[in-house]
Amino acid sequence: MKSVKFASLSALAFAMASQPALAQDAEEAAEADDNIIIVTATKRDANLQDIPFSINAQTAADIQKSGATTLEDISRNVAGLSIQNLGPGQSQVAIRGVSAGQIVRDQPGVKEQVGVYLDESVISLSLFTPDLDLFDLNRLETLRGPQGTLFGSGSIGGTIRYITNQPNLNEVEGLVEGDVQLVDGDDLGYSLKGAVNVPLSQDKAAIRAVGYYTQFGGFIDALGEGGAVTEDVNSGERYGGRLALTLKPLENLTITPRIVYQEIKADGFNRQERFSIFANPFTTTRPAITLGERQQYLLQREEFRDETLIADLVINAEFGGVTLTSVSSYSDRSILVSRDASALTGSVSVDLALGDAAVLIPSNLRDNTELETFTQEVRLASNNDSPFQWVFGGFYSDISRVYAQRLPTPGYDAALDAVLGAGTSAAVANGFGADSPFNSDLAFDFEQYALFGEASFDLTDQLTLTAGGRYYDFSEDRVITSGGFFANGDTNAAANTSSSGFTPRFLLSYEVADDVTLNAQASRGFRLGGVNDPLNVGICNATDIATFSPFQEFEDEKSWNYEAGVKAQFGSFTFNAAGFYTDISNLQANLDAGSCSSRVTVNADAHTLGLEFELSGEVVEGLDIGISGSVLESEFDETLLDTTGAVVQGVRDGNRLPTVPKFQISGDATYSWPISIGEAFVTGTFQHVGNRITQPGDQELGVGIATTSGLPFGGATGNEPLSTDLILPSYQLVNFSAGVKLENQLDITLYVRNVFDVNALQSFDRERGGRARTGFRVGQPRTFGLTVRKGF
After folding, report:
1. Which residues contact 621 (CB under 8 A, 6 or more apart)?
2. What is the spatial distance between Cα 56 and Cα 143, in angstroms, rounded to a whole number?
3. What is the pLDDT of residue 4?
């Protein structure tokens, strides 16, 4: 039977109120009824339907059935969850429409709006949400709405938790999976993955090892000088693994150390270009080019690298009706984004009249992020059958992040000096090397302390009240040094951001009948403010300097979320729905600073209002269906004006917040029937994602924006019209799979993803505000594949 995917989630304390043996009872119930999903979003095993706070749980079976291979794929099946795909390792997450807009490469000071966890360890990072492999995943939990009480400032929109399978103390078990796929009809992708669990001493120790390798097929072709064409430039690979050891030296003591390693490599990005100063239909001294579907134009190859190491230790001890939990986590990430910036430097060369030879110099922008994080949480929770339950604890984190940018452009210094005077480049280098017109070293040190607590009380057998809060204290220090002709020329310029406060939460749950529960809550969310990076004044025009220079800092973002929901189960059917309103104070909106080739974050009040629902059940024997969706209004409540009185880039009262659709719905159906050696099945899924915008200003520009650069080059005047609709259109994806599940634990599945080969536009990409290059990030085209799994 189809698993229930949606339920309400209470605080940790409320989950503790169920029974002292809740974990054992939940596991036994799940074994007896496959309509039950066990979750740990409350940091303890519990039946999804028994805890009243909004959560979606996509189980391993759900993920396999939908054909999802990434968090973006999963998001289309989860009401209220949306993902903006900016390339491998660069997905941006929004829940319930709480979205600040596109975060791009040079905004390392922007904080997360959605917290992302691997089990108990924080792994979220603004812009670079890790693309974790979903193999040997028990489930993925999406906690909707502010989760400040238990999860802190990075969860103002909600929290996502990857829950992995843990070492099994009692059984040898394992799984091997192989997959081969044909992407866009011409590029091969494949993967090989394996997991094994071995008890070292029955009931005392076990080890679980997971390893995987995936080769991603590409689907973007790059045109180049002289008519060159390089196919499938966005192919790549992902490999890594996990090694976990569980020790149980005493009946009431469990110790689980773990190591996680993953590396992603990509040879390019999923960018479909619309216009480039090098490739457009308006040039006369160069070949006129109209870029087509899934094409881009490069003078230089691109790449992406993301190396992640996580080491964590979880200790659980039970004594005297109390559970003590300690979670220690260390992570180290190294990220490289290497882009062809030739159009960027070329557009500046046109502005400076450096000549065609300078415009065509290949340029490579290399962004390096080095991140080290240490976190420690300790909490105590009641563990008995009293009507009064509680939890309290403390949290500490120390984060060091260094962000370095270089723009190696061989020969550029000579081109600048020839026009602007000898010694011009050397005078602005500020200690950085030659032939790199932009250089920046930006270091962050971030420290956080928090105390949290929550308690619940059963007022009657049907009515439960939960209340809690979190006190937080943050401090961030940043230092920047920059040099080169494009840069602002700062030398060890320091800034500090700090904040402290309290985020409360209140919850009521009322069981009106067997299997029907009403719940209501009010909760507050928080996100730390910061300091914007200096504008690159050397390449800004006067208008952009006047518009964006006043925005030096951005304030803390705070929200109040109010919601009411119902959870009901009737026979084999489960229906859950929630309505919500979120009042956001000082939303941190991200804007493109145009010709300055940089971005700024500004504050503006906003709100979201919506309804989410999910229904699942068995229609007739063998036929399971499910449908989920959300209707959402997310808008600014304030108009932001510049010094001239003009509205700043679409931040206008009543305008939409970026990146999130107003309407999203998905449905799936699986029909299975017995065969002599097991079971056969067919599955179809349908996903609709409504229209969106990438940045607030896009809805005001809308249809008909002239995306030519305005710069004369290659015989073009720069004023030729090229109409582009910046409202990202809605799209529908259909997936189909069929296969058999044999009695010897062998599964064989044939599938087609994106059956109708829809070219889904995910976000609008602009270089230097569109003066250099414009295009779209696009989704994966039609893919045929075969997956074979063998368990033991």
Report:
1. none
2. 7
3. 34
Structural domain for 308, as ranges: 6-791
CA distances from 522 to 150, 467, 507 (A): 15, 10, 7
What pLDDT score does 707 carry? Answer: 63
**Rounded Cα distance, 380 and 256, in Å:** 18
**Smallest Cα–Cα separation from 269: which of 191, 336, 213?**
336
**Cα 22 to Cα 37: distance, rounded to the nearest angstrom:** 14
What's the first-to-final CA gap in the chain, in angstroms?
Answer: 23
Which residues have a Cβ under 8 Å from the Cβ of 53 and sit 6 or more positions away? Answer: 8, 9, 10, 11, 14, 143, 145, 507, 519, 521
Q: Is 230 part of any domain?
A: yes
Instruction: Tell me the residue type at 578.
Output: A
- Give the pLDDT score at 211: 98
Which of 136, 114, 138 shows the shortest CA–CA distance to 125? 114
User: For residue 405, what are its two tokens?
Assistant: 């940018």
pLDDT of residue 13: 31
Q: What is the reported pLDDT for 36?
A: 67
- CATH code of the domain containing 713: 2.40.170.20
Hey, is 5 helix, strand or coil? Answer: coil
DSSP symbols for 158-216? EEEEEEEPPPPSS--EEEEEEEEEEETTTEEEEEEEEEEEEEEETTTEEEEEEEEEEEE
Q: In Å, how far from its chain's centre is CA 189?
A: 23
How many residues in the chain? 792
pLDDT at residue 723 in the model: 82
In a domain, 637, yes or no: yes
Integer Cα distance of 295 and 305 in angstroms: 22
What was the pLDDT predicted at 103?
63
| Residue 544 near residue 569, CB atoms below 8 Å | no
Coil/strand/helix, residue 265 = strand
Give the other-Cβ count within 10 Å of 361's Cβ. Answer: 19
Question: If phi over 0 gives left and psi between -120 and 50 gives alpha, with beta otherwise, what is residue 673?
Answer: beta
Residue at 1 is within a domain:
no
Residue identified by tokens 């829940």 is 95
| 647-659 pLDDT tens trace | 998 999 999 999 8
Amino acid at 188: L
Burial tier of 585 (Cβ tally within 10 Å: 0-12, 13-18, 19+): middle
Task: Return the structure tokens found at 622.
Answer: 């063998």
How far is residue 281's CA from residue 263's CA, in Å, rounded to a whole number? 39
CA distances from 575 to 614, 628, 693 (A): 6, 10, 31
Residue 372 and residue 262: Cα distance in Å, rounded?
15
d(CA 410, CA 387): 72
Predicted pLDDT of residue 539: 87
pTM as predicted: 0.90
Could you tell me if 458 and 387 are in contact, meaning their C-beta atoms sit under 8 angstroms apart?
A: yes
| Separation between Cα atoms, residue 398 and residue 426, nearest integer Å | 38
Specify if 656 maps to a domain. Answer: yes
pLDDT at 769 (0 to 100): 82
* Tokens representing residue 661 in the block: 């659709």
Taking the C-alpha atoms of residue 389 and residue 30, their distance in angstroms, rounded to an integer, is 24
Which segments in the chain show pLDDT lower than 70?
Answer: 1-36, 38-52, 85-89, 102-106, 153, 702-707
DSSP codes, 697-765 = THHHH-TTEE-S-S--BTTB-S----EE--SBPPEEEEEEEEEEEETTSEEEEEEEESTT----EEEEE
Domain count, the chain: 1
